[in-house]
Amino acid sequence: MNFPGPPGPTQVSRPDYPSFIPQASVKGKNQAKNGPREGEAGHAMKAIVLPKYGPPDVLQLKDVEKPAPKDNEVLIRVHAASVTTGDCEFRSLKLPLAWRLLFRVGFGIRRPRKKIPGQELAGVIESVGNAVRSYKKDDQVFAATGLGLSAWAEYCCLPEKGLIAMKPSNMTYEEAAVVPVGGLHALHLFRKADIQRGQKVLVIGAGGTVGTIAVQLAKSFGAEVTCVDSARKLDMLRTIGADHVIDYTREDFSKNGEKYDVILDVVGKSSFSACIRSLNKKGFLLLGNPGLSQQLRGMWTSIRTSKKVTGGMISYKTEDLVFLKELIEAGKIKSVIDRRYPLEQVAEANRYVESGQKTGNVVITVQSWHPSCTSERSREWLDEDFRGDIVDKNGDR
Ligand SMILES: NC(=O)c1ccc[n+]([C@@H]2O[C@H](COP(=O)([O-])OP(=O)(O)OC[C@H]3O[C@@H](n4cnc5c(N)ncnc54)[C@H](OP(=O)(O)O)[C@@H]3O)[C@@H](O)[C@H]2O)c1
Q1: Is 393 in the pocket of ligand 1 (CB under 6 A)?
Q2: 205 Cα to the center of ligand 1, angstroms
Q3: Does ligand 1 lie within 6 Å of residue 146's CB atom?
Q4: CA-CA distance, 140 to 124, in Å (whole number)?
Q5: What is d(CA 73, CA 262) in angstroms, rounded to the nearest whole number?
Q6: pLDDT tens-digit series, residues 150-176
Q7: Cα-flanking dihedrals φ and ψ of residue 181, to 5°?
Q8: Any ligand 1 atom below 6 A from CB of 85
Q9: What is the spatial distance between Cα 65 and Cα 79, in angstroms, rounded to a whole number?
Q10: What is the DSSP-derived secondary structure letter of residue 153?
Q11: Contact present, 342 and 15 (Cβ < 8 Å)
Q12: pTM for the complete prediction?
């Protein structure tokens, strides 16, 4: 499902292949002890590297060591990845103080320990480790990379038991690549509230990565869904199933007298008290992006009242990714894609996401751009998926 945002001067441009000429090297994850070195033909890959926290300009396209799977890992040839608001927060560390400190402890105090960002992907398994039983070469998969990140690269190794599942058969790689982060987050939170048919659900920040899947999940559970976001996203939200929409720049959802059984606050900018006031007696407030004070107030509210508040640290389950795949194949969830950028333009994609104009998701197309991508399948995919969507540097389609 394509929902282009405001037109830019050039939405996506095909890279000139010479721009893939190695610029530098970093040591790849799982690099074999005596493995190939920088620039060795057939053993290098292109990746976006984050050498330090900062603005989009710090991102660099580099030639790095192609990773090799450990015994329990699969090697995925990445076809598509995403740039999310979370990626921009990780890159820039523009976060509330407590989160910033937590991120620095988790990802590197002075500079990121994980050099290749990217939280989700879809691609094809190129090879598997000796102990892997669930996947084989040529399986089409989608995955969340978790704390290891690494999706902004031509290849990525992930544990067989990680957040990985077979790609929904009715989705392209691009569509599948933008499901895991938003889908796992929304599903994890909604499971806490055990949404019942006919219940009223409010999704605040419904037009982004998490929200667009949350809306469709809530609809699939039989809920009546009200979406809160800015005006330009409301038509799209109606298209994916919203029963009611509210433009938060014009109307305060907490002042129209409506009460909800479940409120999912994706962005965490709404007043905590207003959310609690808008809940039915035994309602659930799900905090998708809570600050410390919201978490503390949430705990207090859950103890002292009949209303329940959930949020904070979250761990995702592979079964949930499989559940999402089944819902997608049943036609219940579609991906909302705004713009597509090739791997070499990840910095540009970051700027667009950071500009706040994104509707739904921004996709990074990876493997198809590379001249070494010669398989029939990839060529077909390139032809089908990008026809009419791509504007080259001269503005020609
Ligand atoms: N594991 C985790 O803890 C986890 C997982 C996923 C996401 N997150 C975090 O959750 C946040 C949201 O994620 P996302 O990927 O869905 O972001 P996103 O794609 O940027 O979507 C956020 C949406 O909320 C809208 N919005 C902004 N302010 C709003 C307000 N006051 N009221 C209602 N809507 C508002 C935005 O629209 P406008 O910009 O047009 O206003 C946008 O459509 C991010 O900070 C992300 O890092 C955390």
Answers
A1: no
A2: 6
A3: no
A4: 5
A5: 38
A6: 999 999 999 999 999 999 999 999 999
A7: -65, -55
A8: yes
A9: 18
A10: B
A11: yes
A12: 0.86
